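Journal club prep, shared notes

We agreed each person brings one worked example of a sequence with its structure written out as tokens. Mine is ParA family protein. I'm keeping it raw so we can talk through how to read the token line rather than staring at a rendered picture. Sequence first:
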Amino acid sequence: MRSTFALLDDCQYRLKAAAALLSVSENTLRTYVKDSGIEIKRATADNPNSPAVRIFTLDNIFQLAAWRRKQGLIKPLSATPICIAVELIKGGTGKSTTTAEIGIQLQLSGYRVLMIDLDVQANLTQLMGYESDLEDGEAATNDLNSDAIVHGTFAEVVKPYLENSRPGANKMDDISHYIKWPFGADGPALIPSDTFLGDLEHAIVATRDTRELVFRSFFRASTEGKIPGLNVKDFDFVLFDCPPSISFVASNAIAVSDYIIAPVKMDSFGVKGVSRLVGEINYIQSKSGQQPELIILPTHYSSNVSRVARMSQKLQTYKDNLPDMSISSSELFPKSQEYYMPLTLQQPTSAPVKEYRKFTDFLLQKIGAKEYAAAKEAAAKEAAAARSVAA
Ligand SMILES: Nc1ncnc2c1ncn2[C@@H]1O[C@H](COP(=O)(O)OP(=O)(O)O)[C@@H](O)[C@H]1O
Ligand SMILES: [Mg+2]
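Then the structure, token by token:
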């Protein structure tokens, strides 16, 4: 029995695809295999007549990514996780797709990623292999075990915390069983969504604390070890896939995030969604002091549509937030949903996956530079303080 809808056993990669997944040259990958001692089977194991090429399974790929991290070949970026909200107040712009693709790619780079589905439509949950409506009785008929069922969402994770902060509350239960590991322990983690996620909005509205800052206090409590079963410090990145509507859930994601990625659909008409988002970020900043950096990612790009040219021009208002890259319009994305797996894992050498990889690299470089500058500033301050003590 499988634990998700995805046919993970069918995912087999030859050297070139495996190297693309891990963003290294084929030679470097050969060295990784040798040094790590991770056993990679040969095609001849299944079919004696085939060439003796190495066949990497999905497990092998995530094992190699994790090994790379343990070897210190990947430097942790910061002591607490970098939070990224993928957000735009408009549906169908590529938010869930972007969360899934960069989530997988960051994990493949060697970082530990937690993705949180904040949309009741549960598209991210589906891209990670789960049907949010699947119930216990139906699982077995689909050849699935109980791991394939969504037993709880971020609502079940946060609500006990909110209830626990009331006086006289009981001890919190461990929430680790709500966290999914769709590709095994070396892969990314997911807090999935289903229709009951809607309860989270109600719980936030009912709180007596500042409504926009619930996630922030929850994350602080988590890093202090006060949430049994979830310490967000175990992750390098937390990615939020946000709903297309204005809600406290979406505002909370902004208030806890270091970066906001806004996927903008290029074959559409307006940039109103972006200006609305900028307004929302400014409002949250006035409430929380948090100043997330906005990054616009053009999606559904096509060079020969006049609407795209017009949109490109309109986006120039936000040129400081607009990296020189975009994701092409590609039928491969809607198709990838049928297989319950992000395109990165299905077609690692395809053109749109390369575009997402370029964007992920850009993101890592940007974050690295910012963290480095922050660390340098902190060190300078410390040195100045030490000097003043000495004097
Ligand atoms: N670059 C793209 N080109 C073509 N189709 C895309 C692209 N990105 C996403 N899609 C498709 O568009 C639809 C909406 O994407 P999705 O990521 O779910 O948007 P959102 O989360 O913003 O509602 C999906 O069917 C998805 O497969
Ligand atoms: Mg979505």
